[in-house]
Amino acid sequence: MDLFKISKEMITGVEIIDKEHQEIAGKINLLFSHPKGTLSKAFIKAAIKDIHDMLEKHFQTEEQIFLKLGILENSVASLEHDSILKSLDNFIGDVEKNYCVSDEFKAFVVGTLITHMAMEAKDIKNASI
Ligand SMILES: [Fe+2]
Ligand SMILES: [Fe+2]
Predict the structure, then answer these.
(1) How high is the pLDDT of residue 99?
(2) Domain spans, the chain
(3) Relative to the alpha carbon of 63, which ligand is closest?
(4) Do residues 29 and 4 lie in contact, with contact meaning Cβ atoms separated by under 8 Å?
(5) How many whole angstroms from 120 Cα to the centroid of ligand 2?
(6) How far is the CA of 106 from the centre of ligand 1 (A)?
(7) pLDDT in tens, 63-96
(8) CA-CA distances (angstroms) from residue 28 to 60, 64, 68, 79, 110?
(9) Who surrounds ion ligand 1 at CB < 5 A?
(10) Comparing C-alpha atoms, which of 28, 97, 34 is closest to residue 58?
(11) Residue % of the chain over a pLDDT of 70
(12) Ligand approaching nearest to the C-alpha of 80
């Protein structure tokens, strides 16, 4: 079962954002599709780095769209971007110590990233009305 499911309330209606959200979710689901303890440290680090880089590019796209919609300064979602990237940097460091995809990373995906996408979908829909 996929860890990261894009629910209806997470659909923003902006094609490029929704497409990238699907790609990010797919990459995360692929990482968690492997049984715990079966992946090498290098593989996990590279996968989280890929997710970091996808998100970094995605946030740039998103912030340009937020700017056009007039919500860049007051959207909590846009303020969260830097802290999400910092958390991913920390997880890459954690892999070095723990050698497996940590439960904290799983909690981060389910808690922070999914909530983030739902919140920005709300912001975008409110701005588009
Ligand atoms: Fe975002
Ligand atoms: Fe996003």
Answers:
(1) 60
(2) 37-128
(3) 1
(4) yes
(5) 7
(6) 18
(7) 999 999 999 887 888 889 999 999 999 999 888 8
(8) 20, 24, 29, 22, 11
(9) 62, 77, 120
(10) 28
(11) 97
(12) 1
CA of 17 to the centre of ligand 1 (A): 9
Residue 55 CA to ligand 2 center (angstroms) comes to 8
The per-residue pLDDT for 100 is: 63
Return the pLDDT at 101: 66
Residues with pLDDT less than 70, the chain: 99-101
> What separation in Å is there between the alpha carbon of 95 and the centre of ligand 2?
24
- For residues 3 and 32, is the Cβ–Cβ distance under 8 A? yes
CA of 61 to the centre of ligand 1 (A): 9
pLDDT of residue 8: 95
> Per the structure block, which two tokens stand in for 83?
């802290």
